[in-house]
């Protein structure tokens, strides 16, 4: 079916979408996303109305996009264009922003980061949204999207939210930083994680401190970091101390 859609013209795919029985429609939408041909994506663009379509069908489309193993820049552009539409349901907006992060990461894995304008537009969309977000829940969604995207230039933004944000935001930002490979865990990132774990500037919730310690231990830890983390466990609750001791033991192995 996907092979057939590869060679189908836009009008044929659009007719198929419009005439498909309701129970078959999600399957046809997923297949059109998987095909990623010019015709199938153009047909989806015309067919999907994010202001009117059922939430279930729109979520099917966004999940299919997010889980696409080798997405194209055109697929990301389609998601970006649809998220620009007004009056989106909050669930669709949330799924869309997180799916966008996943698409950006996969395009970058294909070495298309600097070659696709859509990637730059996607990253900027998330960063602009994050700067303008007032509600904590929206800030967290944008941080989750940055964690999915794993774009190195967003690390300073994540560090700022990790150190300065309230507990839920700090936790989301540190979780996003945990997604980055070792080559991007710089001395600047490590200094920030030390300040969080050792509470140099302010108090942090236990989960934030443990996540900060994990980053230090998982990415070429220095001898002093290991010693200082071990010393700090003597003042921590048994559960947290045991967790960190196991992390150190696993690193030694």
Automatic annotation (TrEMBL):
Residue ranges constituting the Vitellogenin domain according to the UniProt record: 1-235
InterPro entries: Lipovitellin_superhlx_dom, MTTP, Vitellogenin_N
GO cellular component, one term: basolateral plasma membrane
Transmembrane intervals: none
GO biological process: lipoprotein metabolic process
Top-level division of the source organism's lineage: Eukaryota
A Gene Ontology molecular function term of the record: phospholipid transporter activity
Xref: PANTHER family: MICROSOMAL TRIGLYCERIDE TRANSFER PROTEIN, LARGE SUBUNIT (PTHR13024), MICROSOMAL TRIGLYCERIDE TRANSFER PROTEIN-LIKE (PTHR13024:SF2)
UniProt name for this protein: MTP protein
Organism from which the protein derives: Crotophaga sulcirostris
High-level lineage: Eukaryota, Metazoa, Chordata, Craniata, Vertebrata
